[in-house]
Amino acid sequence: MEREEVLTSGGRRPVQQQRIAGGWTPSRRAQFLDHVAATCNVRAATEAVGLTQASVYALRRRDGAFAEQWRMALLAGYDRLEEMLVSKAIAALEDVPVGDPDKVVAGPISVEQAIRLLDRHQALVKEGTGRREAQLRATQAETDAMLIKRIKAMRGKLERRA
Questions:
Q1: Could you read off the pLDDT of 50-76 as tens digits, one per residue?
Q2: CA–CA separation, 159 vs 142, rounded Å?
Q3: Is residue 153 helix, strand or coil?
Q4: Which residue has better confidence, 134 or 147?
Q5: What DSSP string describes 6-39?
Q6: 99 band by pLDDT with thresholds 50, 70 and 90
Q7: Is 137 helix (H, G, I), strand (E, B) or coil?
């Protein structure tokens, strides 16, 4: 079983590196991202790797690189989905079979489900990023810059009053 290295501490014990079994190992991350790219379904992807949705959302919040990989996997999935819908629409018009059924990665999906997924994707693209991604924590530098700016503004107000 693959082991992941994490930093832990407890009580008065110093922070130390520990290897734990399971969790979001590099191979599980890759499997999750592949599944998301194939299905656009986070719940199914977490079930496929044997972990919880809560744990993957927590990982996304604390790991910016993983969050970006997740976003790219979703974009690839939506592109594939859009391509599939266009192919089906063309095939319906031309009465020709579409694609190779032996190469299907995702399970069956209705046209209505696919359209709903594409609508969600297009709404996220218009906003720039997903609402959840926008809730990521600020970096230390961003927080420091914001605090310094506010302190300067407060000093300016105090000086104008005096």
A1: 999 999 999 999 889 999 999 999 989
A2: 26
A3: helix
A4: 147
A5: EEEEETTEEEEEEEEESSS-HHHHHHHHHHHHHH
A6: low
A7: coil
Give the pLDDT confidence score for residue 23 in this predicted structure.
83
Q: How far apart are CA 110 and CA 23, in angstroms?
A: 33
DSSP of 81-119 = HHHHHHHHHHHHHHT---S-GGG--S----HHHHHHHHH
Q: How far apart are CA 146 and CA 27, in angstroms?
A: 38
Q: What pLDDT, on a 0 to 100 scale, did the predictor assign at position 3? A: 52
Distances in whole angstroms, Cα of residue 71 to Cα of each of 40, 102, 125, 136 = 10, 27, 11, 13
Residue type, 140: Q
**Alpha carbon 149 to chain centroid, angstroms:** 31
CB atoms under 10 Å from CB of 50, counted, come to: 9
> Residue 77 pLDDT > 70, yes or no?
yes
